[in-house]
Design goal:
Elements lengths: L3 H6 L3 H25 L2 H29 L1 H17 L16 H53 L5 H4 L7 H4 L11
């Protein structure tokens, strides 16, 4: 019995060419079938028939998914909207980096930027320190005002607890006793 290799080696060049042509024709037929199946009209028809058959189920499942997962749905919608909006913009040109003699100018510029950042940092620290000092001063003044105000209120406070809670209509001698009042009323 002959192996497949031996059978192939005994074929004439004309026979091999005919087989190659037959395979090309077969591949061409497959490509044509795929092209006709995936035309925009055919794909639209397939999508339309799927929507008609399974559209209610799809919409129901989509609504349930959006209701159960609102954050991913919103983020996806925002991302798609962003993608669509960015399609209308002209492309951004990227900077061209130079090498050679201009490189010294770039390093000078970078040094200037670094110095500016250092100066800004120092100014920010000075500003923060002055704000902290002002806050401490204001805090001290507020504490002294609050202490003075509390002393004045304590001095002018009503002598009887009943007056503080609104029992002024009751004669003081009935309500004020040594238990309720901290000091005697005149």
């Amino acid at each position: 019995m002959k192996s497949e290799m031996e059978i192939e080696s005994e074929k004439s060049p004309e026979q091999i060419e005919r087989e190659i042509d037959a395979q090309r024709a077969s591949i061409g037929n497959i490509v044509d079938a795929l092209e006709s199946k995936f035309t925009p009209g055919q794909m639209f028809d397939q999508a339309w028939s799927m929507l008609q058959n399974n559209g209610a189920t799809f919409v129901s499942n989509l609504g349930t998914s959006v209701r159960n997962n609102p954050v991913p749905a919103v983020l996806t919608s925002v991302g798609l909207l962003w993608l669509m909006m960015s399609q209308n913009r002209p492309p951004v040109s990227y900077p061209v980096y130079r090498t050679g003699p201009d490189q010294n100018k770039v390093s000078e510029w970078a040094d200037g930027v670094a110095d500016g950042i250092d100066s800004a940092r120092d100014h920010l620290h000075q500003t923060a320190d002055s704000i902290k000092e002002g806050y401490q001063s204001l805090k001290g003044k507020a504490t002294s005002v609050a202490t003075t105000s509390a002393r004045q209120q304590k001095a002018s406070a009503t002598p009887c607890m009943t007056q503080a809670i609104g029992l002024r209509a009751i004669p003081k001698r009935w309500v004020c006793s040594s238990i309720i009042c901290s000091r005697n009323n005149p």
